[in-house]
Every structure is written in structure tokens, then in C-alpha cells.
Amino acid sequence: MSDAEWLALQRAAFLAGPMAVAIALLLIVRPRPREAVAAMVAFLWQLPALLALHMLAQRFGWWSFGVERNAVQALPIDVWIGWAIWWGPVAVFARHWLPLTALVAVSVALDLATMPRLAPLVSVGPSWLVGDVVAMLMALIPGQIAARLTRDDHLPKVRAMFHVLGWGGYMTFVIPVCVLSYAGVPLSTLYHLPVSALDWCVAAIVLGLLFIGIAATAEFASVGGGTPIPFDPPKRVVTSGPYAFTANPMQIISAFVMAMLALYARSWGLALIALMFAVFDTIYATWYNRAHIAIAMPEAWSSYRGAVREWRMRWRPHIAEEAHVVISAAGPARTVWNVLWPRLSPWLEGSFRIDSAAPGTLERLVYRRPQGGVEDRGIKGLARILEHGPVPLAVIGWLMRFPYLGGCLQRLSGLAIMLWRRNAVVSGVG
Amino acid sequence: MTDADDVVLRHGLPATLAFTMAFAPRSSTRVGSIAQSLTVLGLSAGVFAGDWLPLLLACYPVLLMVAVIIGEWRWSYRHREPNR
Q1: From first to last of its 430 residues, what are the pLDDT tens digits of chain A?
Q2: Which residue in the set B2, B8, B9 is minimally distant from A4, CB to CB?
Q3: Is residue A267 packed enough to be buried (19+ CB in 10 Å), middle (13-18) or exposed (0-12)?
Q4: Under DSSP, is residue A267 helix (H, G, I), strand (E, B) or coil?
Q5: Dihedral of alpha carbons A29, A31, A32, A35, sign
Q6: Which pTM does this prediction carry?
């Protein structure tokens, strides 16, 4: 058998093999709907992770593929899809019999046994074992964790983090790389530092839109206990955060980000994808919401959709429910509140019930909207109050509640209060 | 033999997906069911699409749009019938 024939057979086997195993396991396991969604989540995680891994492998010389046709940046498409099925659905179904540690051990053992013998398809470099460890850490293990959390409907905030990374990975990496590769355009047309005023504007808009998209995903997780994936939806109609301003922020952002990337790369291919996003969002996603959410939660959905529209951004949020704010009776938080509230309240939408905290409680600020499933404390509670304001104030609020940034701000405010109390003690002694 | 990979990727993959989709449980909604049938048709067309396969994939939302239009039109048509 010639090298060309052997290479073709290897490539065919790398796609057909995982497909056959996945179908066989599907028939054996007969997964419940949530497990099927978990398998899909694992597969979707693998595509951007494996493409990123391939780019790293090329950069550090871990391994390379000896292929010319049907490849994206020298990554054979068949191997890419087959690998994603293998570490996606196949691994998810295999976990009926294997725990994650055993699965990783088996995968590493398989790699050790086969990778150096896969010529002419794969040529490994001297440090390929480092690449294998990286592959486990960025592709197999996170994909399996995301799948297990999805299957068990557990830790929605962690699931949302996976979806943010995955969504960002598709929007800014997988789709542009595939489209530019198909069009035969170098990736540097998109992945370059801004050189003109237009480039800077586009980059700033993309970053701003991605920020709002992440804020919307976080809202789905923290308030709705679900994700933007239609098969793993939130448990309630999410009406807070960016959803108080527009009914489909994620969809608008996906279409606009892709349009901005098309403009940045001057790519008609990416413009077509942006158009397809808009078609999907305008027609199919709108129908999906009407056919599923409206039936599952009719009252909440109809009152929300009566006030907040798709593809239209309100200047002020729609907040139907009275917000309950509890503020400490004395201390630094109360002092700041007494200064801030009279100036802020005329700009805010919706009604508030403000109570003083019972003496002796440690809470400085609590914000609650029980029907909307919203409850935040401290800096995040303050951010929720700002979200009653027009768009600029609300954006500051989303920034203050942004994953990890909100936690940092909370610690900073704790530090400021500590300094305040220390100064008060010093001046009292003086 | 040198085309084995090409056959599996361009023909085998869409054909397998079409087959799986055709025998998957039907969607509970009319539009979902039409979308499923159109997807099977689209994947079957993909078997013969050759170099146009990525473009066909990119235009998948158009197919979903058609499913919504047909499904909603049939729904409104049936709901109008008793008044005729």
C-alpha cells in the first residue's frame, strides 16, 4: 500500500471509527434527554478547544499533520471532527462505566501507544508529551466536566462560564478561522492589531458587545439557573440584567459581533455568516421562544414580552416588580447611601421599598426581587440598583457584577470600609 | 483508495447524519418536525454538494427559516378553515 493510500485510510478511520463507536454507544446507552444534551455540549466544547490545541501544537512543534486537502490551517477536518466525537459523545457515554480519572488515564495510554506510530498522518515532535498534557487539560477534562454538570443540571454559574468560553471561541475563533480558510484568505486579515481609526472603533464595539453578551449569559445562570442553549434553558423567564432592555441580547450581539468582524477583516464570507445569524435569530429563535418558553411559562412570558421587544433596545429598563432594598442602619454604607440615593433615585425606573437592616446584622446592602429570582448583596446589590437606570448606568451595574470583577470590587469595598472604620477610631481617639 | 478520506468526509458524514436524523424521535412541534425533515433533505443534498458543502452548512439558517414559514403558514391556514 502506498503512503497516499495509507494516509487516506488513516484519515477515513479517524472519522468513521469515532462515528461508528458513538452510534453503537448511543444504541447501547439510550441516553436520557439531558445526557444527550451533555454529549452535545462535550462535542461543542471540543471543536474550539482542539483547533486552539492544534494552533499551539504548530507553534511549539508538538506534532503536525501531513495533509494537504480538506484541512483548516493544516488541521485535517475529518480528524478534527472524529477527535471531537471521540472526546465528546463517546467519552460522555463511556462514563457509564469509567470515572473521569480512568477515562483520562485510558486516553493518555492510547495516545502513548498510538501517536508515535501514526505516520504519515501525524508526525510527533520531541516534546509531544507536553502537548498531550495540554490536550487533556484544555480539551478532554473541561469538556467532560461541562458535560457532567449539564447532565446533572448542577452549578449553573460554572456551566455558564463554559458557555461563555465556548460561545466566545466560536464567535471569535472557530467560525472566522473556518471561513477565512475556506475563502483562502490569510488569518492575519482578521487577527491583527488595529491600524486605522475604523479598526479601533470596530475593535471597541466588538469588545463592548462581547461584554454585554457575557453579562447576559451570567444573568441566565445566576437568575435563571440555566444556559443560553435551547436544550438547557433557564428555569424561569429571565427579565433582569440586559434582558430588561431587550428580549434577545445574545442573538443581537452574535449577529453584530460577526458583522463587525466581517468589517474588520473586510471578508464577504464573514458578512454572509453575520447575515445567517440574523436570519436564524429573527425567524427561528423568535419562533422557538414563542413555541417553547411562551407555552412553558405563559403569564411571565406574555407580561415580559408585552414590554420588552426583540431587536429593540429600550433606553430605560422594564422592571415590573417592586425592589426591596435593605441598607444598614448606620456605618459607612449608610453614610454613602444617604449621599448617593437622593441624587440617584430620580434617574431610576421602577418602585423601591427601602428598609433599614436590624441592628446587629452584618449586611450592609441587600437587593431583592423575589418574583424575578434576583437577590444580591453588597457591591452587587448596588449594581442591581444602578440597573434600574438608563443604559449607561445599567452598563456600569453590569460591569460591577461582571464575573470575578464583582468579587474584586466587593473585596475592595471591604478594604475601604476597614480603612474608614480605622480612621474613625483614630479620629475618635484624637 | 487514495480518496477514501474524501468519500467518508464529504459523503459518509452527511449521509450518516441524515440517516440518524431521519430515525431520531420526531419533534413535538409542527415547525420542529418540518425543520427535521428539511434537515434530512439538506444533509442528503450535502452528500452530493462536493466543494459547496461548507456553503450549504453556512446557509442552514435559511432552511430553518423555510421550516418556520411553512409551519406557521400551515397553522394559520388550518385555523382559518372553520370560518370559510
Answers
A1: 788 899 999 999 999 999 999 999 999 999 998 999 999 999 999 999 999 999 999 999 999 998 888 999 999 999 999 999 999 999 999 999 999 999 999 999 999 999 999 989 999 999 999 999 999 999 999 999 999 999 998 988 899 889 889 888 999 999 999 999 999 999 999 999 999 999 999 999 999 999 999 889 888 888 888 887 777 788 888 889 999 999 888 889 999 999 999 999 999 999 999 999 999 988 888 888 878 777 778 888 888 888 898 888 899 999 988 999 999 888 888 888 999 999 998 999 989 999 888 877 777 899 999 888 899 998 999 999 999 999 999 999 999 998 888 889 989 988 888 888 888 777 765 5
A2: B2
A3: buried
A4: coil
A5: positive
A6: 0.87
When CB atoms are compared, the residue of A7, A10, A284 closest to B64 is A284
Rounded CA gap, A101 and A103, in Å? 5
CA distances from A320 to A27, A306, A350 (A): 48, 11, 7
- The pairing of strands A323-327 and A71-72 is unpaired
Q: How far apart are CA A114 and CA A257, in angstroms?
A: 41
The ipTM value here is 0.86
Q: Collect all residues of chain A within an 8 Å Cβ-Cβ radius of residue B32.
A: 291
Measured between beta carbons, which residues in chain B are less than 8 angstroms from residue A4? 2
**B3 contacts in chain A (CB < 8 Å):** 8
Cβ contacts below 8 Å, chain A against chain B, sum to: 86
Report chain B residues touching chain A, CB-CB < 8 A.
1-10, 12-13, 16, 20, 29, 31-32, 35, 54, 58-62, 64-65, 67-69, 71-72
Q: Which residues of B touch A182 (CB under 8 A)?
A: 54
Pairing of strands A365-369, A374-377: antiparallel
Show residues of chain A in contact with B29, CB under 8 Å.
Answer: 291
Q: Nearest-CA residue of chain B relative to A23?
A: B20
Determine the residue among B3, B6, B9, B52 to mutate to test chain A binding: the one whose Cβ has the most chain A Cβ atoms within 10 Å: B9
For A338: left if phi > 0, alpha if psi spans -120 to 50, otherwise beta; the answer is: alpha
